DNA sequence: AATGAATGAGGATTCATTCAT
DNA sequence: GATGAATGAATCCTCATTCAT
């Protein structure tokens, strides 16, 4: 996995180097030669592991998504109270984004992959997030949360932490400014179905 | 302004062409030659209006921010009820993002501008959003919303609509799936300070 | 003439500006736009006075040669003693090269004009130097100088001062280092026919 | 060395090609593409050996200076009579300039290198000409030549042959016109200190 | 498997020249 | 005559990719 430094598989070494460069300089200004240097291999070696630049970018994208999913779902326990599960997931999202800013920074870089490729990646990601769908289903069944599609719940809930992490790394908010638990509660209010919430 | 097609100032024509390309293919694969073609001018002409590629990108970024601010604050009336003001702003954010997807898609492309440039742009944007800060201040004074920094309120509130618009344009959510007013309420729940909200 | 600042003929203004630029940055890095700015006219105006860049360069070359000839022959008096005439000419060469370094610096820049053009220019220059040929002829007739072709006498005599002026402007020799009269004598030794000179 | 055709080091191949082009067309009109073609390599290859065009020009300049020095000092024997040493050096200068006209023609092209670069190159050249300084010192000590600085002696002596070679290659003087030994004597008269020389 | 020199198409940028005003 | 915005060919340079070793 991208975040596991003990793995020395050369393919992963290259992807990790690509991630560092992507975060550092974006797509432009990251050349295959630079990547080779950063990864500590020769230029030609890259092509033993990846058909071409595009293939490398796509695989990196997928790898990031998988890594993200694994970190977010780490320690997930479907037997805990539902709201606790939600809190744990939020914590994980926040922790991951805070710890690995390069994944965040490179996110926008992928927005222009061909749409069909993007779709494929999202679908496989969604599969990795199966437990999340289960959680949302249960919450909806029990009338705990609003009857909104998963995608929208994700935006109201988890994506908030991604956005905050970006601001955090840009220095627009400091950790003193925010009590993560407080914000988790806030996002819960957004998705929770509480008759008393009605205005 | 970027969204006003009646303006024929050549500088703006070029920026608009750049926006279309940026949305269509991202930074890479958008060459100055392509831009010239898209804008209907010769390659050399670009350099009469912009010192170089970087200057063009930076000016585009600022133009987008300004345009965004103007659309969001359009029709803003500080004399309306506070919550209504919030609703209006949310509506505007959603409408703008839905109507001009290219602004959205190009957003991630700017993440790698030099940090100091990014900071400058954000600050000038924040100035344009003065009425928003006033609104938040009033709401906080009256105990209507949680005592969170503006930046976080923005994320919990408005950025939700930006994220949703992206998904909308990617086809991940359809307009049938979502009742915008419902989502506006949801984000209000996120930021609102309601003692009954306490869990 | 290039060195006469009272002439305000626009053609000459342009040529003088070209000379300044040529001396300052060589052929490369001197653009028609720069020239227009330096001359204080619009780019298009250059083409009212010169067919194209090449024509301008050629005319500049000729102008420099003519100016050089006029300065060198200034005050020439064919009735003075022959050796004194030689001394005067040397003095003039030195003075001119010292006073107008830009003419010197631009000299090497013309070495790559098409050979036929160069030839034409040299021939017309040689015509302007008629009095010099007369002087050499008289000296040779009287057995004062070696029976060498004019071209070689010029090299042994006058070109010495051109070379020294270049070194002077590069700071490789200072004026303290050199007594011009002494050097004039030295060059005279080079061309003089003195039986006692024989080794 | 630039004049040794047996060396096939690619860097030298490129420099030699650059020299041919420089002599043929001067700085302008010699493009990196042309150079690549002339050298028989791809355009990109140039940049494997030289950082950019400027670096190439600078290195060419130094290479020319070094080559010139080596040829001029070839066969130099400090044990010969001093005047004979001088004659040998003059012969070498003449021979070199006659044989490799491209080095001559490119000379003026370097006049616009940045002054500090020019200075560096001249200093390193001067080091290579150590034996020449020794010769001048000895001659001055023995009262054989005028008490002039080395730089001026060089101009009066050796540079004469450079200038003549230029005229020779331009067809302004033919070899029939000139007896090199005669001219060597003439330059010796210029620098020699002979009381009988006094006029 | 690994290398890295070589390639050459493609990018950003410049600049001589034109032409409508 | 004079302007200077517009042009687009040509320039320098980069970089993804290949291939002989």
What does this protein structure show overall?
The structure is a homotetramer. By secondary structure, chain A is mainly alpha-helical. Chain A has a single domain (about 10-195), classed as Orthogonal Bundle (Tetracycline Repressor, domain 2). Helix content of chain A is about 70%, strand content about 0%. Chain A is built from 11 helices and no strands. In chain A, helix 4 crosses helix 5 and helix 5 crosses helix 11. The longest helix of chain A has 21 residues, at about 55-75. The first copy, chain A, is elongated and about 60 Å long. Chain A starts with 9 loop residues before the first helix and ends in an 8-residue tail after the last helix. At the C-D interface, helix 7, helix 9, helix 10 and helix 11 of C face helix 7, helix 9, helix 10 and helix 11 of D. The first copy, chain A, binds a DNA duplex (21 and 21 nucleotides) through helix 2 and helix 3.
Structural class of chain A: mainly alpha
Main sheet: strands, sense, barrel of chain A: none
Percent range for helical residues of chain A?
55-70%
Give the CATH superfamily of chain A: Tetracycline Repressor, domain 2
Q: Could you outline the blueprint of secondary structure elements for this entry?
A:
Four copies of one chain form a homotetramer.
Chain A: H1 10-25, H2 32-39, H3 43-49, H4 53-73, H5 82-99, H6 101-107, H7 115-128, H8 130-141, H9 150-156, H10 158-170, H11 180-191
Helix pairs in contact in A: 1-2, 1-4, 1-6, 2-3, 4-5, 4-7, 5-10, 5-11
Chain A binds a DNA duplex (21 and 21 nucleotides) through helix 2 and helix 3.
